[in-house]
Give the backbone structure.
Amino acid sequence: MIGLARLRPLALVRRFLALGFGAVLTTASAHPTHVSLAEADYNRDTQRLEIAVTVFADDLLLALRRPTAAPASFTTTPAAELDALIRAYLGANFHVRANDGSAQTLHWVGRELDQDDGEQRLWLYFESPLPGGPDGVRLHHGLLHDTIPQQRNTVAVRDGARRTTLVFTRGDSAKMVRFSE
């Protein structure tokens, strides 16, 4: 199982931030551009896809409040209750299907709230078993598409030196992981 300490320094996500996404992710609280960046690393030793997703914290809280109209907060909602809400939302909006088509379980690792330049981002860490490796796996990253029509989600998938990037907008279905050799 992956740990928060191992996932925190996400090199690829940090590179995205350094290359200009930082301006998008650290705009004023009204942030007119809505993006989510994810890194999915295949760990050959454990045969698991280790995933870290970052979203604007206020956008996720809005999505969590929507189905029940119950307030969700990082300061007043008990941690176990907030984790349960996030896990349920994640399970409904982020999917991993093995190359045989079977739905893979998402195993929750944890979350981390990060504040940079006055904007709060939430890091979600989870993993999924993939004994056959990531080739041909179908991913769907639909977080926040239900509440923010212009939401754009990017997933950078890595398997050793092989890399590919999948981009999801509202209405997109699952996409297949294919590495260009």
Observations:
- Residues 4-176 form one domain.
- The two ends are 29 Å apart (CA to CA).
- The CA atoms of residues 44 and 133 lie 8 Å apart.
